[in-house]
Amino acid sequence: MRTKNKDKELNHRHFIGLRLTDVELDLLDQGAACLSVSRSEYLRKLLLEKQIHHQIEVVADMNDLRKLVSEYGKIGSNLNQIAKHFNSGGSQSRAIENEIHQCITDLFLLRKEVLKLAGGMNGNRKTH
C-alpha cells in the first residue's frame, strides 16, 4: 500500500504523447538508465532542473547592411537640416512639409528592408 506522500508525488494527471526517432529514444533510455529512473521521471527532471539557452543568430550580407547604414545617415542629415531650418526661425513651407514626409516614408521603407534582411518578425533567416 502506498503512503500519502507517495500518492501526492505520483499525482501526475496530465499525459503528453511524444514521437521520437530511434536515436532520440536510445538517448532518452540511456539518460534514464544513468539516473536509474523511468523515462517520465527523467523527462521531468530535464524539464524542471535543466536550463535551456535560446540563441538567435541573424545572418545578413555586409554590403546590404552598409547600404542601409548609409541610407539612415542620409535621412538623418536631411532631418537635421530641417530641424536647423525651424530652430533658426525658418517658416514652414510646402517644400519643407514634402521633405519631412519623404524622410518618414524613407524611414519606413528602410525599416521594412531591415526586417527582410533580418528574417522578419517570424524568425526566418536570410542566408547567402
TrEMBL record:
InterPro entries: NikA-like. It comes from the Bacteria. This is Plasmid mobilization relaxosome protein MobC. It comes from Blautia intestinalis. The lineage of its organism: Bacteria, Bacillati, Bacillota, Clostridia, Lachnospirales.
